[in-house]
Structure formats: structure tokens, C-alpha cells
């Protein structure tokens, strides 16, 4: 049986080393399982503490995806086995979301450069891994999205933090519609730093072995700024010279900002839903996705965007953890996975069935601490460790 994550180290000409972690489940588009999360976390810690390792590379096996999201089949089995019980009583989902969010936070605060190769499909949990990397690279094949509204969840893994930092109200639009971003829009939205043609990726890995990486200083850490700069230089040397045309998110940003500028979700939803007949198929598809998605997810995504607007990443991950546990018990999450991946009838029976039923009062339960008073939040220590 193949390992779910492959790890290797390459030695540069000056004797320093860099680690390569490869998500190794191409048949599931490298969907992120708990086993993969734990393996990555352990190896990242080992490389962080190894003075001979100067940087880390994250990539996905296969040609189609870096990572298309989380292990929905595993989460579905766990929700079925724990039906009728609160999410806080489901040991598997508690571990999955806690470990996944800790891994994402670890990448955000990693002491060494992290290069993420966001080729092909990058969605959901893949966005969580990629967005914290110091050097985020896309290719001509990249397609990025947070389409959780289609499965009864919400843009988690720090999505409520990330989307709030996109230009104007584009992040809210993406949260409500699950719309895809191409390579150009990945830069516009702040999700990418560099691009390479897919065929040039092996050349980049070869060039990393030729760089004069700075080794560990007396304190055991390599000079971060030097190695960040060397990595930037290596990426820039292979960056395509052809300019990127504006993507649909950027092209329609004025319209999106106008439609999403209010503070009442009902009004925004009505305006976006009317785009179903728009002449641009990207906008029409975004509207259709929102209309077919879970009304409860639309309400929850909007509430998180509103409430997390000025919060730290640590606070956002703690709030998302509570909301995610509630989603596993609510029902729409399991129903969304059933309709998409299990029965594949693509006819989810959402409850509540309308946005009016998914009211501002209804969404409050997704923000209530599910554990006894006095028990600390499982992610209470985020932000307390030194970088």
C-alpha cells in the first residue's frame, strides 16, 4: 500500500537540504485525510527542528490536482455513525478538524520558507494548505475555489480570514457562490505569488539544488530573509513572460462589489440569484451554484464573513472549529456529501430549505461553545507558541 504522503529530501550543492512533501492520493485528487494531516504535521515539525533543512516544498501527486479538499468520505461515515449526537461527541470529526486547522496554522507560522505548488485543482482543504505558504505558485492549469456551499459546509480552514482580505467584496461573493478562480484571478485575490508553466516545475526543483542556501546560524535557524530571497529569485527566473489577461473575478469586480455591498444577506442573495441569466457563463454558473447550494451554508458563510472581519487568524480558526462541529451534527453537511459523492443523485434535500428559514436567529447555534463551561477550547493555544 502506498504511503498517503511521500517525503524526500534533496541535497543542494553546498550541502544544505530541502524537504519535499507529496500528497499521494491522485485517485481522490489528493483529498486530505486525517492520516495525511498527521503525517504532514509530524514531518513539518521534524524539518523545522532540523538545522540542515532550509526550506520545504508541498506538492500533489498526479497531473490533475494539488489538493481538491478534505476526506469527505471519511467525514460522511463518521457523521452517519454518530447521527443524532452533537458534533462535540464525535471523536473523529473533533480530531479531523482540530488537526487540520493546527496544520494550516503551522504552515502560516512556519520558521522556514514553504513553497506550495498549486497546480490543477486547489479547493477547500487544499486552499487551507496553500494559503499559509510563504511562496505560493500557480500554473496555467490552476483552478481554485472554496465551494463548500454545495455540500452544506462553509469556507473553513481559515477561509473566513482569507476571504475577508480579498479586494472589495469579492471574498464574500466567492463564499456565497463557490465560484472558481483561474490563474489570473488567483493573483488578483491574493492567493498566488508566482506562476510557472506546468512543464517547468521539474526545472525549478533542479534549480533549487543549485542555490547557495544559507545554512543554520548559531541559534540553529537558517537566515530566513536570505533563503526567502533565493527562492524568489529561482521562481522569477522561470516565470512566464506572457502577461495574464484579467480573469472573470477581476473583470466583474465592480459589479460584484456593488451587488455585495449591503449588510442584509437577503438583499445580496436576491441580487446574486438574478445573475443566473447573465450573458457571462461564469457569473451565471456562480449564481446557479448558490441557488442550488445549502441555504443554511449561505447564511452561515455570510455570518462568519461579517463576524470575523477584523479578527485574527487564531480567533477565526477557533470560531470555524465550533461551526464545523455544529455542521457535522446539523445534517446538511452529510446530506450534501450524500448527494454529491455517495448516491450521486445531485438532489440534496436541504434543511432549512429556504434562506428565509435559515434566519439570523437560526444561525446562532453554530457559534455556541459545545463543551462544558470551564473546559478550554481545543485550539486555545494557537498563537501562544513562539514562531
Automatic annotation (TrEMBL):
Keyword annotations: Hydrolase
GO molecular function: 3-hydroxyisobutyryl-CoA hydrolase activity
Single Gene Ontology BP annotation: L-valine catabolic process
Reaction catalysis annotation: 3-hydroxy-2-methylpropanoyl-CoA + H2O = 3-hydroxy-2-methylpropanoate + CoA + H(+)
One GO term describing the cellular component: cytosol
Domain Enoyl-CoA hydratase/isomerase: 19-367
Residues spanning the signal sequence: none
Pfam families attached to this UniProt entry: ECH_2 (PF16113)
Keyword Hydrolase: yes
InterPro entries the record matches: ClpP/crotonase-like_dom_sf, ECH_dom, HIBYL-CoA-H
Keyword Electron transport found: no
EC number: 3.1.2.4
NCBIfam families, per the entry: PRK05617.1 (NF004127)
Protein name: 3-hydroxyisobutyryl-CoA hydrolase
Organism in which the protein naturally occurs: Achromobacter pulmonis
